[in-house]
Amino acid sequence: MNETVLPYDMVIIGSGAGGGTVAKELSPLCARGAKIALLEWGGFFKKEQNTRDEIGMAEKYYFDQGGFQTTSQDMTLAFARSVGGTTSVYTGTSLTMPEEVLNRWNVPGLTMNDLKPRFEKYIRENNVHLHPPEEINENNFLFVEGCRKLGWHVEQFPVNTRACRGLGTCNLGCAVHAKQGTAAVQIPTAQKNGVEVIPFCRVERMEGNDVIAQIIPPQFGQDPSSLKPGSYRFRADQIILSAGVIHSPTLLFRSGLGDRLPALGRYFTCQPALMLAGEHPRPIQNSEGHPKSFYCDEFYHSQHFLLETCMYFPFTFAKSLSGFGEELDDLMNHFHHLQMILVLVMDEAESHNRVRIDRKGNPLVDYRFSQRSKQAFVSAMKASARILFSAGCRRVHAPASDRFLIHREEEAQIDELISLKYFKLGKIAISAAHLMGGCRMGEDPRTSVTDSWGRVHGQKNLYVADASLFPAACEINPYLTIMALADRVAEGVRLSS
Ligand SMILES: Cc1cc2nc3c(=O)[nH]c(=O)nc-3n(C[C@H](O)[C@H](O)[C@H](O)COP(=O)(O)OP(=O)(O)OC[C@H]3O[C@@H](n4cnc5c(N)ncnc54)[C@H](O)[C@@H]3O)c2cc1C
Question: Is the CB of 161 inside a 6 Å radius of any atom of ligand 1?
Answer without folding.
Answer: no
